[in-house]
Amino acid sequence: MSLTLRGHRESQLENALTAEMKRQVSPYEQYRDLPEEELFREAGVDTAGAERGGYSNYSYWGATTRAFFQNRVAVLFLIVIVLLLAFTFIQPHLPNQKQPKTIYNDERGIQIINRQPDEEFWFGTNSIGQDLWARTWAGTRTSLGIGFAVGLFEVTLGTLIGLLWGYVRKLDSFFTELYNIFDNVPQTLVLILISYILKPSVGTIIFALCLTGWLSMARFIRNMVVIIRDRDYNLASRCLGTSTGRIITKNLLPYLVSVMALRMALAIPSAIGNEVFVTYIGIGLPTDIPSLGNLVQAGRLLISQPELRYQLLFPVAVLALITISLYIVGNSFADAADPKNHLR
Fold it and tell me: Domains in the chain: how many in total?
């Protein structure tokens, strides 16, 4: 009796399920009579969503900063650069400091020429009685200003032109011809011509160095962009409708930061070296403007006199410290900024 009742209930349940399934309308039948414009709609482009990765808490700059500060040698030389730059501005305001352009005389009114370093003149005096301590730091301030201005301009303009040159195919032929025009004129000749045409000054040196200094940076960035522009993630970004500017800033620039940092670090001492060169050939800054170029040039003329070599030693030591520090800091930051070193 119990089995008969259970079978009857199962039969009723099956009949109810069958009837319910018959009453349901399939999705195709439900939307079959609707017009096509109501069946489909534009999905739209979500730029932020298209570029959102799986690791939302990852910060490229945070990882770069952490990797850089783990290098104690690089941090040490970064501190050296910061302190050196700060001291060039603080030094004139310290007590008992002499003026870099003033000619000093002794009690008898005679110029204190070529005095060896002592308690009064820490770096000694030059051939006309000027304090080399004050002139060295004033010259360092001038040369660092030239170096940073030229380096920043070269990296900014070179990176911008290199990105457009490498990524926008329609501009490739234009920038190639522009590069060929500027590259066929030697930079040394440009420096000499600009220095002869314009009045020798800090602005003239910066203008002459910036005129062609961006060429090598732009070519290098262009070659890097050509290598990575057609990789899968860039193709996927273009298919998702991501704008060219966002692709350049989000997909390309992280791979170029390391190159930019290193080139910037090398451009600064290179600009200082070029300033020293044009001063060496006699068309640089006027002698009344303290710079490392003028100091090195003046000290070079006294290299054959052992008792006066200190006039070359001090500016060369400062120049060497700047060059070594910038190279180590730039190279370390380039390694820290390389996305390949962020993989775990």
Answer: 1
**For the chain, how many residues are written?**
344
The range of the structural domain enclosing residue 90 comes to 61-102+132-342
| CA–CA gap between residue 139 and residue 154 (Å, rounded) | 22
The rounded distance, in Å, linking the Cα atoms of 171 and 40 is 38
Q: Which residue has the tokens 């692709």?
A: 247
- Residue 228 identity (one-letter amino acid): I
Residues 81-123: tens digit of each pLDDT? 999 999 999 999 998 899 988 888 888 888 888 888 888 888 9
Q: Tell me, what CATH number does 181's domain have?
A: 1.10.3720.10
Residue at 207 is within a domain: yes
Both tokens of 153, joined, read: 């301009």
Is 52 a member of any domain? no
Report residue 198 CA to chain centroid gap: 29
Both structure tokens of 189: 């000749």
pTM of the model: 0.74
